[in-house]
Design goal:
This protein has 41 helices and 8 strands. A 5-stranded parallel beta sheet has the order 2-1-3-4-5, with helices on both faces. By secondary structure, it is mainly α. The longest helix is centred in the N-terminal third of the chain and has 41 residues.
Amino acid sequence: MKKIKIFLASSIVEFANERMEIENFIRNISDKFEDNYNIKLQPLLCENFDDAYSIVRKQEEYNEKIRESEFCFFIFFTRVGEFTREEFDVAREQFEKTGKPKIYTYFKIVEEGQAEQSVYDFMNQLDKTFSHYYGTFSHIDTIKLRILLSLKMQEMDFVEIKLESGDCVIDGKRVMSIENVSEFAHNENLEKLQKELSELEKEYFELKPLYDKGSNDEEFYKRYSLIASRRQYLKDEIDELQKLIFTVSVRMIKDDAHGTISERQKSAYRLFEKGDYEGCMSVLDSNDIDSDFHRDMARLEGQKITLCRKYIKEHKTAIDILCSMKNYEKRFEEIEERYKKIIPYILELKIETDIAIDYASYLNDQGKDSMALPIIEKLIEICCDEADLAEVYNLSGIIYNNINKISKAEEYYLKATAIREQLAKENPNRYNADLAMSYNNAGVFYDEQGQINKAEEYYLKAIAIYEKLACENPERYNADLAVSYNNAGIFYSDQGQAGKAEEYYLKAIAIREKLACENPERYNADLAVSYNNAGNFYSDQGQAGKAEEYYLKAIAIREKLAYENPERYNADLAVSYNNAGIFYSDQGQAGKAEEYYLKAIAIGEQLAKENPNRYNSYLATSYNNAGFFYKNQGQTEKAEEYILKAIAIREQFAKENPKRYNADLADSYNDAGIFYKNQGQTEKAEEYLLKAIAIIEQLAKENPEHYNSYLATSYNNAGVFYKDQGKTDKAEEYYLKATAIREQLAKENPERYNADLADSYNNAGNFYKNQGQTDKAEEYYLKAIAIGEQLAKENPNRYNADLAMSYNNAGVFYDEQGQINKAEEYLLKAIAIIEQLAKENPEHYNSYLATSYNNAGVFYTEQDKINKAEEYYLKAIAIREQLVRENPERYNPDLAVSYLNYGFLTKDINMLQKALELAKTRPDHPICRQIIDML
């Protein structure tokens, strides 16, 4: 077991209690390190030695303990005692010989006149003689945090130390509050936010029990909403500001550890600890730094690198402090201005490259990838440190992916992964987490590119590492493991591997439910993501009950989050509303579907009004979904309005950034084409379908693995369109193009693409049937059935409906061929499946069942089996009358057809009159128009 000795030196009398408190603190965190890393922290205090130390002062033996230590912390109050000063000299002498112990010196802030002159003399000597940075503190917690950060910088860089809700967290475990640490306690902006929050929470906690009970008082809800929203805003602002301050603290310890703090930095850091930001920026005045630098460069020949390091670090200190000055409006302008001054020296002299990496990441976060790219390219040339180079490669992958240079992105993702594999092999404690992140990034990349085998390989590699890490240290890594499980769930769901997808979704949910139970403010949002994904999954599997359960769980969390913090969570809530709209639309619950679609649109419109660049794309999705919904409900004017709104937004986005938004635009063009086809507006339909094909052909040419499946869908849609227009050559051309792509895709990945291939076979069967090519039609119908039966056998919930459609198509085909027994067999097979589906989920499948009953009525009419025909027509009528009561616009044309069929069968004039009256309610509908003309 590795031991790290930490020597604490101070006046025996003045800091006895504080030394004991620090000792207990070190021992507590040591327990954690022993369990996870086989490292023991050993605090050394004078109280821990035998009485001879404090009485007789066996100085050499005592000094030897200092020489053996990795760290020495010297803490002073009102005096610098003779023995403590001697201990400092011993530590300094040993450091100069061996580089250890690392020495940290802190003085407690006292009122003027309380400290002896020895304190000021020693401060002066530290500054001028030793060039040693010393810090100040008003509470012992400052020393605790400095010890933690020093350990990380010097001995344990693999340990994760971060802030969460005002606490310092090591590897997921809260170890101390930062409330009393100097730079946090003295920050005026932070203090104002905390004071407002404290006052607001008094009223919040008075109102919350009443809110939880429920009330009909609108004014009460309005008041609670305002307070809850402001409270959450303040909590988020405080959390963000604390993290920004913490970043400066980390940089301060890092500079101290490297022993390269300039006089200007020393002054700035001390003012920073006292909360004097105006003083900080005065000391770090940009013009003063520049003036001193250029003067020194002119007169001190041969010291260019030393002077440039100082120049770079002084500006970087200013940048770090500027980042934490949230109330300073021009901070971003000044940050970028200072970076631009120092980056050329970093890249020319190949020094302080970590600062250039910080700048490239900053530009990437700001969406300025074109500015980041030349910096990244130069860093690739000059980085010597392997860990830094891996970070640069990873960032390169992200940037090249953002600008759609896929081969370059892949190259750099793999380079980052290769380095991290080697680093993790040599030092797993330090680099396994980074390697898992690289594997996960590669998995996401290959998934987006449609390279399924590679994506799966990397996802599983990431999971394997995170499972091991989470087993050893669940507090730190369970959240990361849940992310990997969630990604795998999405991946396997997309591949049609329902069993694996469900397994990973539920694993992610189990972890996140536990995390959210322990810390709801931190993890409820993640849990909502998992619930939403599970809703999508179970909806795709046809498990409506489970899908609804998870959708509503996600909505419940997101409504609460958005109620208290609309700026942060309204976009997520809109996504959940959209998903619920799609779900209820698929289930035939039009009222609920419309309610959720309109809720999503209302949020999207508000968000897009405030920030169009960020949210217009979300709004376009909501418009597109609503357009399809209203099309299915027969509300053509509303449908067209929303579809065209979506197109207008996406055309603008695709004009500005075609590589990113052309795929979305193609989706909208496809949807518009299908809409206008159904409305009988063939010219518009053809225009939009061909626009979609043109875009997707280009995308598939550049990236076939990702876009070929979308291209097959577009070809299929075009085939349907041209078949309906009687343009058989074009229809066949597009059907065969779609089938050829899908056969290749299904050959490579049958689990994902067999369902699409069956759809193409079905469409080809319909086409060749209409062309009188019965052999080809039968061939394709039977191919579709063979696939459908296999899929339904493996996953009946998801694929039984598709199989029923294939049976129905085959039944109609054999009926037209006069093969009555086969026709009846397949039609009844279709009915049997749909009856079962409608029994389990009537809202979704009753309309399909009515269609099957109606088809059976037609079949038995043709066979002159009047009783059976009448039986099925009446079954269809009973269902459709119920559907019409709930949604007349959508279902009036279907009921009119059933009335017409039954009327002709039974020669019932009343039924024929009913059919005519219903048809007149929808004269715009093609079927209704035919009935009107017929009767």
